[in-house]
Design a protein that fits this description.
heterodimer, A: mainly alpha, ABC transporter involved in vitamin B12 uptake, BtuC, 2 domains, B: alpha/beta, Rossmann fold, 4-stranded antiparallel sheet, 23% strand
Chain lengths: 520, 272
């Protein structure tokens, strides 16, 4: 028997045990149990402790996980079970030691909530699953069983038989798929594509009026972050400029709409649409002012300058100096939004507005990316010096990317302010910039599906998972780390277009497009 | 004497205390292959960088069709019709081969971001035209069918040719090639040599070449200049350069000329 293998399993057990203890210390197990109970259909009141069996599910899953990861694929089944057993046992022992401390605390009636807020007696009893001191033995047994079960599951799912079956199903499916697509005439294929878009359009039209204002609020926010994210992607993903302070441009749009459509502090009522355009214009002017001195900066230096720029804008808006102009720390209330046939916009109309703006932004982004301009940006991102020596005016193109990106961010900000009827300095904090930056990195740079996914994962999920309020940042961080390890290029990475193939299919065989060449 | 395409007059480039290029005079005739050779560190690449605008020479003038270009930025020089390749290949690695060539076409096209957003007639025409032109260039450099590969995934020889393809897309009158056959085997070198000749004969492009492979240099050059410690020590046809004792000494050290003569006599004897 290989001692090395068992030592590795033991280390896994210790690690998982310690992780579990930390999770308990921050009360994560109660939240996990609450979520299990919700999934099973039993609602738990806010702040209440759920049923014990849901905690058992959580702990068992954790044990199965350690058993699964502790087994090494190359070994025989017997060894693997032993590995799972050792990992489960070690984890059980670690947790049992922790349990003993908890039991001692309960029996000596020491209230350590002054130091560890979450370790109240209720919570301790809950974690011991109501067994009191016997909980130690229960945990030990449970983790050993779970570890063995985990290794057994790993053996089963990684066995050649199961894998072979999955593989054959997969090949059969793809074969069927290709046969269908081969035999279908082009018209039908095209029709299928249009049908897909039609259904998508129908869904986008139907959903906002059906699913209620809460989801409109959440998905509207996701949509606004998509627009801003595409703006940042033009700066960072296409032209390679590391801009952190995107919130500054977002704030320009928001404050332009707010100042021109609120009773305080100026009492101007210019209407939403001109204000939105002015907001985008102001963002572009700010981008030019920021860009002229900084287009020579590269990489981290540009990041720091833009970070400072974003903070300066926020602090200026917050300062007493400008209170009479921008409302100061209290922000601007009662912003008058757009109207549709005399009626003010509702959450549903706002959702439509956001969907339309998002669609236009995506459309423009695709057109820009597949053009001379987009390729010049990509060249600048790849190698600034060579791009310039190839004849690209890098100052001009970097500034252009900043301006277009800023305009998109300003658009998102304007709608954001009108939809909230309020905007203040705290809406444009550094966290906004960082959120937008992370959403394109998590989703996948230069990839629209990636940005949609990333925006949903970073803005939509946390809103929906309000239960996890306290753990939001924890999950956020964990998600980022896991993603960087598992999918370093983003959830849905971009791929380069097959231009040669397309060109040969379109331009060399097709007689009609030949006309374009002759005009030249 | 054919027309001169580019001329350097007393060009000097100084880094701190080091004079990398020292008062070099060159006159490159049109539609010719002009080689610059010299030992490592002789200032050949520095001279290239001065011509293509990466460096501004401290002294002297560079005249392209009689117009001074020294000190202009690289994009303007590229726009005026001078393209170059790099000693260590510098492609846009994460873009496809075809996209690399399309980027090379940048100067020829006029459409801007507004055209791209609105798909104006100018954009539609130029887009189709540029794609077709890029495919043609891809075929010219022998990468037909490899256009959709990422540039960094191409084999070494193809990367070299793609780099030349990108330079050609700019429609240059003058092409600067920095060691185009470095790291190639005999077969690949031969293909590259023939390719460079085609550039001159078919496209009528003037070429300045930095090369260490003497067989290549002597085979394809119309004229050769030799640099040593930043100074031009000789200029002439391949035959003249081969016989020049100063050149031999620059490569082999003092006394090298006599040594080389002895060696050649021996070789002639053994051949006879």
């Amino acid at each position: 028997m290989n001692k090395e293998l068992l030592r590795a399993s033991r280390q896994k057990g210790v690690t998982f045990g310690i992780v579990l203890i930390f999770l308990v210390l921050i009360n994560f197990h109660i939240m996990a149990a609450t979520m299990f109970s919700k999934i099973m259909g039993t609602n738990v009141l806010r702040g209440a402790i759920p049923e014990v069996r849901f905690l058992t599910y959580f702990l068992t899953l954790f044990g199965i996980w350690v058993g699964w990861t502790a087994t090494s694929k190359a070994e025989k089944a017997g060894t693997r079970v032993l590995q799972g057993l050792v990992a489960g046992l070690t984890m059980g022992v670690v947790v049992a030691l922790f349990d003993l401390i908890l039991v001692y605390l309960v029996q000596s009636k020491t209230d350590i909530r002054r130091y560890v807020t979450n370790l109240g007696f209720d919570n301790i009893n809950f974690f011991l699953q109501g067994f009191g001191a016997n909980g130690v033995l229960v945990h030990l047994g449970m983790f050993i069983l779970a570890g063995v079960l985990g290794s057994a599951l790993a053996i089963f799912f990684q066995s050649t038989a199961v894998k072979g079956a999955a593989q054959s199903v997969k090949t059969a499916f793809s074969e069927m798929n290709s046969r269908i697509s081969q035999n279908l005439p082009d018209q039908v294929k095209k029709f299928g594509k249009y049908l897909f878009y039609l259904i998508l359009l129908g869904m986008l039209f139907m959903l906002p009026s059906r699913w209620g204002s809460y989801y409109n609020f959440v998905f509207g926010l996701v949509g606004l972050y998509v627009i801003a994210g595409i703006g940042l992607n033009i700066m960072l993903g296409l032209s390679g400029q590391f801009v952190i302070g995107l919130a500054a441009f977002f704030a320009m749009g928001a404050y332009s709409v707010a100042l021109l459509n609120a009773p305080q502090p100026h009492g101007l009522m210019w209407g939403f649409w001109p204000a939105l355009l002015i907001g985008m214009l102001v963002a572009v002017i700010a981008a030019v002012l920021l860009g002229l001195p900084t287009t020579r900066l590269r990489g981290d230096y540009l990041g720091i300058v833009t970070l400072g720029f974003g903070e300066i804008i926020r602090i200026l808006l917050k300062s007493d100096l400008l209170t009479s102009f921008s409302g100061g720390p209290r922000g601007i209330q009662d912003i008058k939004g757009p109207t549709l046939m005399g009626k003010p916009f509702t959450d549903v109309t706002y959702m439509y507005l956001i969907i339309i703006c998002m669609a236009v932004t995506i459309f423009l982004y695709y057109r820009l990316e597949k053009s001379r301009t987009g390729r010049a940006w990509l060249a600048i991102k790849e190698d600034l010096i060579v791009a310039q020596a190839t004849g690209i005016n890098i100052q001009k193109y970097r500034l252009l990317a900043l301006c277009i990106g800023a305009a998109f961010a300003g658009l998102a900000g304007g709608i954001f302010a009108a939809r909230n009827l309020f905007t203040g300095p705290n809406d444009h904090s550094l966290m906004v910039s960082i959120n937008i930056l992370s959403l394109i990195i998590v989703g996948g740079m230069n990839s629209i599906p990636g940005i949609l996914l990333g925006s949903f994962a970073l803005k939509g999920l946390p809103e929906i998972l309000r239960e996890m309020e306290n753990y939001r940042l924890l999950v956020f961080g964990a998600l980022l780390v896991v993603m960087m390890l598992v999918r370093p290029e983003g959830l849905w990475p971009a791929s380069r277009p097959n231009l040669e193939k397309e060109t040969k299919e379109k331009l060399f065989t097709d007689g009609t497009s030949e006309k374009g060449g002759k005009d030249a | 004497m054919p027309d001169t395409i580019i001329e350097t007059k007393q060009v000097s480039k100084i880094f701190g205390g080091l004079t990398a290029v020292n008062e070099v005079d060159l006159q490159i005739p049109e539609k010719s292959i002009y080689s610059i050779i010299g030992p490592n560190g002789a200032g050949k690449t520095t001279l290239f960088n001065c011509i293509s605008g990466f460096y501004t020479p401290e002294k002297g003038q560079i005249l392209f069709y009689g117009q001074p270009i020294e000190g202009l930025s690289t994009d303007i020089i590229a726009g005026s019709g001078i393209s170059r390749t790099y000693q260590n290949i510098r492609l846009f690695g994460n873009l496809t081969a075809l996209e690399n060539i399309l980027i090379g076409l940048h100067n020829k096209l006029k459409n801007n971001w507004m055209d791209a957003m609105l798909h104006s007639p100018r954009f539609t025409r130029e887009d189709a035209e540029s794609l077709r032109e890029a495919c043609r260039l891809l075929e010219f450099v022998g990468l037909n069918g490899f256009g959709d590969y990422l540039a960094l995934n191409l084999p070494y020889g193809m990367q070299r040719r793609l780099e030349i393809g990108r330079a050609l897309a700019n429609n240059p009158r003058l092409l600067l090639l920095d060691e185009p056959t470095a790291g190639m085997n005999i077969q690949e070198t031969h293909v590259m040599t023939e390719f460079i000749k085609r550039l001159r004969d078919e496209l009528g492009i003037s070429i300045i070449l930095i090369e260490h492979d003497m067989k290549v240099v002597m085979d394809i050059s119309d004229r050769i200049s030799v640099l040593d410690y930043g100074t031009k020590i000789a200029e002439g046809s391949p035959v003249e350069i081969q016989a020049n004792p100063r050149v031999i000494e620059a490569y082999l050290g003092p006394g090298g000329a006599a040594l080389a003569e002895k060696f050649q006599k021996q070789r002639r004897k053994s051949h006879a």
